[in-house]
Amino acid sequence: MTPEEEKEEKKEEKEDQEEQQQVLALDAMKRYRNGEIWDFEDDMAVSDGHGGGGGENGVLLGLDGGTTSTVCICLPMIPSCSHSQLQSLPILARAVAGCSNHNSVGEIAARETLEQVMADALSKCGSKRSSVRAVCLAVSGVNHPTDQQRILNWLRDIFPSHVKLYVRNDAVAALASGTMGRLHGCVLIAGTGTIAYGFTEDGKEARAAGAGPVLGDWGSGYGIAAQALTAVVKAHDGRGPSTRLTNSILQALGLFSAEELIGWTYADPSWARIAALVPLVVSCAEAGDEVANKILLESVQELASSVKAVVERLGLSGQDGKDAFPLVMVGGVLEANRRWDIGKEVVNCISKYFPRVLPIRPKVEPAVGAAWLAWNFYMKEYYS
Question: Where does the record place the ATPase BadF/BadG/BcrA/BcrD type domain (predicted)?
Answer without folding.
Answer: 61-374
